[in-house]
């Protein structure tokens, strides 16, 4: 289902400027590697600027006048920007070059006229939606924590978590890389069979094997994990594993759209002292409140007047 880049997902690039720019940013914009991998190349001494190796990660270059090479190959500005949605199969590594010789996502883009790299990652044993591009600024924006872009997954687990289990994922659990929490946790009705449930979970972080560690923390193994959405961009129906499509500007914009659903508030445990204090406050308030009378069936009857405040829709993010 790969589509012609002349018709979708491609933006023309401007001629390189001679304004100073960080070297890792320039390498990412040229499609050499992501910024993180570019930093690694610099630290390893694989990058030369005007014939000299540079090791400092904050090095700035002038793209229009400096000669930059990586592993002996000249770095040239990309002629076009490409944005791809790929349905990654299981048992494929999210890298363009695997030293162990395992199947990698680069195997699916051999005929692409431009070089692209993955935005973020999916584990070897996970499948589903991943983005690829040669636009370093786009990649940085999608992965930056301040954007809080929620990645949505369907997860099959080795059991049937209770509501209390799922609530723990919302309130937060500690995993090897730190404390994390889920933005969305919902049981998928009608999909689980027997004693193995499917759970929909959305996270804004992107820590290594985060979801697997989160479910392990509450006592369940992840048997299957599929990423089905990034922001408001969902996996296209009919896109088979190993296929990809080029994104249009409308599709790109959906990644950064806010989720308009109002998520239910997380229920937190309340201490006995807090409950007692709140009950006393409510009783005192009710004692002071006037109780208007109303006529029912020809006689006066005391009653309470309740009002339900209107709630306006708000974004969950």
Keywords summarizing the entry:
317 residues; alpha+beta; Structural Genomics Hypothetical 15.5 Kd Protein In mrcA-pckA Intergenic Region, Chain A; Pseudouridine synthase; ten-stranded mixed β-sheet; four-stranded antiparallel β-sheet; 7 helices; disordered C terminus
Low-confidence stretches: 1-10, 261-271, 290-317
Q: What is the makeup of the main sheet?
A: 10 strands, mixed
Instruction: State the domain count.
Output: 2
Q: What's the average pLDDT? A: 81
CATH architecture annotation name of the largest domain: 2-Layer Sandwich
How would you describe the shape?
A: globular
Radius of gyration: 26 Å
| Secondary structure tally, helices | 7
Give helix and strand order, one letter per element, not per position: EEHHEEEEEEEEHEHEEEEHEEEHHEE
Helix content: 10-25%
**Euclidean distance between termini CA atoms:** 33 Å
Main CATH class of the largest domain: Alpha Beta
Quickly give the structural class. alpha+beta
Strand content: 25-35%
Q: Care to count the β-strands? A: 20
| Corresponding CATH superfamily of the largest domain | Pseudouridine synthase
User: What is the third-level CATH name, the topology of the largest domain?
Assistant: Pseudouridine synthase
């Amino acid at each position: 289902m790969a589509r012609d880049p002349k018709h979708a997902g491609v933006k023309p690039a401007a001629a390189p400027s001679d304004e100073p720019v960080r070297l890792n940013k320039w390498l990412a914009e040229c499609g050499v590697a992501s910024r993180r991998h570019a930093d690694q190349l610099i630290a390893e001494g694989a990058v030369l600027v005007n014939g000299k190796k540079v090791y400092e990660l904050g090095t700035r270059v002038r793209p229009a006048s400096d000669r930059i090479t990586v592993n002996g190959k000249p770095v040239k500005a990309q002629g076009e920007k490409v944005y791809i949605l790929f349905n990654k199969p299981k048992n494929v590594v999210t890298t363009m070059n695997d030293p162990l010789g395992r199947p990698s996502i680069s195997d699916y883009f051999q005929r692409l006229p431009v070089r692209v790299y993955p935005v973020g990652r999916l584990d070897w044993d996970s499948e589903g939606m991943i983005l690829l591009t040669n636009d370093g600024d786009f990649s940085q924006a999608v992965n930056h924590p301040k954007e809080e872009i929620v990645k949505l997954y369907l997860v099959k687990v080795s059991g049937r978590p209770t509501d209390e289990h799922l609530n723990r994922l919302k309130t937060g659990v500690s995993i090897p890389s730190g404390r994390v929490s889920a933005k969305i946790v919902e049981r998928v009705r009608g999909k689980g069979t027997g004693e193995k449930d499917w759970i929909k979970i959305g996270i804004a972080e992107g820590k290594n094997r985060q979801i697997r560690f989160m479910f392990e923390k509450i006592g369940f193994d992840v048997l299957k994990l599929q990423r089905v959405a990034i922001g408001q961009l969902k996996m296209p129906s009919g896109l088979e594993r190993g296929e990809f499509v080029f994104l249009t500007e409308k599709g790109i914009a959906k990644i950064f759209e806010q989720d308009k659903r109002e998520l239910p508030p997380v229920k937190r445990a309340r201490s006995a002292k807090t409950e007692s204090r709140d009950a006393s406050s409510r009783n005192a308030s009710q004692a002071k409140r006037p109780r208007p009378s109303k006529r029912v069936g020809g006689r006066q009857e005391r009653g309470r007047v309740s009002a339900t405040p209107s709630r306006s829709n708000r974004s969950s993010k």
